[in-house]
Amino acid sequence: MASRISLIFIPLLILLAIGYSYAKKNNAYSSFVKGVLDGLPLFKELFPSIIGMLLCVTLLKSCGIVDDLKNLLMAWIPKSEIIIDLTPMILFRPISGSASIACFDTICKTLGPDSLTAKIAATIQGSTDTTIYILALYFGSVGVTKWKHALKTGLLTDMVGIACGILLALLFLR
To answer: Are 89 and 104 in contact, with CB atoms under 8 Å apart?
Structure first.
């Protein structure tokens, strides 16, 4: 049902924009081209930061450090399957929203969406933000180069959000 609505809604939205432009006697295509050209300098500034962040996420996923960390946690805390299953999402959440969503999706597919681990993961997902992504994107777009304190504060709030998300989910969603 939702896919049918989107198949109708998106073309209607485009037609509505063209109709509105025509009613206002504006050239929709030239406005579109002008908007794209105005956005290119911003893209040029932000592109290196985004590529660097995507490279880091890809390296973290492919090098095996997440699996090593999970194995280390299993050795230290033998009966902590929930924390071990959440480890990849907790690691990727401050870096990339799409990587943490992918980890959340994996948790839901392997353990089920109604499992306690999935509920905790959903709570963490809503309790934290992508600190490093925000710093790279927004600080990079305005030219801020000294963001050491913002990084520390953001990562600290992520840790508090993760801890509170786990505790609240354990208290209320069990």
So the answer is: yes
Q: What is the dihedral of CA 32, 35, 36, 42, to 10 degrees?
A: -170
Spatial CB neighbours of 165, under 8 Å, sequence gap ≥ 6: 120, 123, 124, 126, 127, 128
64 phi and psi, to 5 degrees? 95, 5
Q: How far is CA 160 from the centre of its chain?
A: 18
What single-letter amino acid sits at 159? M
Asked if 121 contacts 89 with a C-beta cutoff of 8 angstroms, the reply is yes
Digit-by-digit pLDDT tens for the chain (174 residues) are 666 777 888 889 888 988 888 888 888 888 888 988 988 887 887 787 778 777 877 787 788 887 787 778 777 776 777 788 888 888 888 888 888 888 898 899 989 999 999 999 999 998 888 888 888 878 877 878 888 899 899 999 999 998 888 888 888 887
Widest CA span of the chain, in angstroms?
A: 69
Amino acid at 102: A
Half-sphere exposure of 125 (CA within 13 A, CB side): 20
Tokens representing residue 101 in the block: 């969503």
